[in-house]
Specification:
It contains six helices and nine strands. With 250 residues, it is of the alpha+beta class. It folds into two domains: 113 residues, Alpha-Beta Barrel (N-terminal domain of MutM-like DNA repair proteins), CATH 3.20.190.10; 96 residues, Helicase, Ruva Protein, domain 3 (Orthogonal Bundle), CATH 1.10.8. β3 and β4 form a beta hairpin. It binds a DNA duplex (16 and 16 nucleotides) through loops.
Length: 250
DNA sequence: ATAGGCGCCTGTAAGC
DNA sequence: TGCTTACAGGCGCCTA
């Protein structure tokens, strides 16, 4: 569930905690999920960036630590029953918490993503100036897949998951079952715009913390966008601004 | 090219 | 109350 807004919020909170510090050791017992972390030891953290749902920590010596939070991954300031890796840093420790263990860590030569195929084929950042309508609508129309599936693929735009795919489609007034190639110019424009709006609003509010509280910031703070969800997790609930649940069908 | 299914993983909700 | 089963979902992978 950490999607672009949650990962971006994590990046912003994590950055001041690690920037310029030496990473002494990454302690864990899972060399399959957390690859080559020993390469990072003794390196300084030079920058903390995000690409789609990936966190990218530039390390001294031309290395890079890539993290994917999976569904339940996140950083905590203290140990938890689900601490999977301990980051021992100059000036303190950070704990990688991940109950379902879908999170992954790699340490690679900077920019060498051969071990991380998804990162290599990621589409454009939807909140960057490089996200432009023409290639977006062109890619839409080249596919017969349902819009929801297309949004989840990370090719049209990087960082969109279940929550924001649903929210953007709803805001654009498009059914998730519509096929890419059936979408007209005006509809494509609405989707393009809705994606940017929904994602930037969610970033501004610190992402979405669902009722399972699986996503939270290192200091335990929740996000604020869950209260704005128009559709995600709202099956059977009243429409926003309406008194009774929707009784319609598809 | 696309669809469907499984596996990974564990907490929680729902059903009996 | 206690047990079992279903579900959640990001992603890879396999088969049809």
């Amino acid at each position: 569930m950490p999607e672009l807004p949650e990962v971006e919020t994590t990046r912003r909170r994590l950055r001041p905690l690690v920037l310029g510090r030496i990473l002494f050791q990454v302690v864990h017992q899972d060399p399959v999920r957390y690859r080559h972390t020993e390469r990072a030891e003794g390196r300084r953290v030079e920058e903390v960036q995000r690409r789609g749902k990936f966190l990218l920590l530039s390390l001294s010596g031309g290395l890079e630590m890539v993290l994917h939070l999976g569904m339940t991954g996140g950083f905590r300031l203290e140990e938890t029953p689900h601490t999977r890796a301990r980051f021992l840093l100059e000036g303190g420790a950070l704990y990688f918490h991940d109950p379902r263990r879908f999170g992954r860590i790699w340490v690679v030569e900077r920019g060498d993503y051969r071990e991380i195929p998804l990162l290599s084929r990621l589409g454009p950042e939807p909140l960057s100036p490089e996200f432009s309508f023409v290639p977006f609508s062109q890619a839409l129309r080249e596919s017969r897949k349902p819009l929801k599936a297309l949004l989840l693929e990370q090719r049209l735009a990087a960082g969109v998951g279940n929550i924001y795919a649903d929210e953007a489609l709803f805001r654009a007034g498009l059914s998730p079952f519509r096929r890419g190639k059936e979408v007209g110019e005006e509809e494509a424009r609405r989707l393009f715009r809705a994606l940017r709006e929904v994602l930037s609003e969610a970033v501004a509010l610190g992402g979405s913390t669902l009722s399972d509280r699986t996503y939270q910031q290192p200091d335990g703070l929740p996000g604020g966008y869950q209260e704005r969800h128009a559709v995600y997790g709202r099956a059977g609930l009243p429409c926003l601004g309406a008194a009774t649940p929707w009784k319609g069908g598809w």
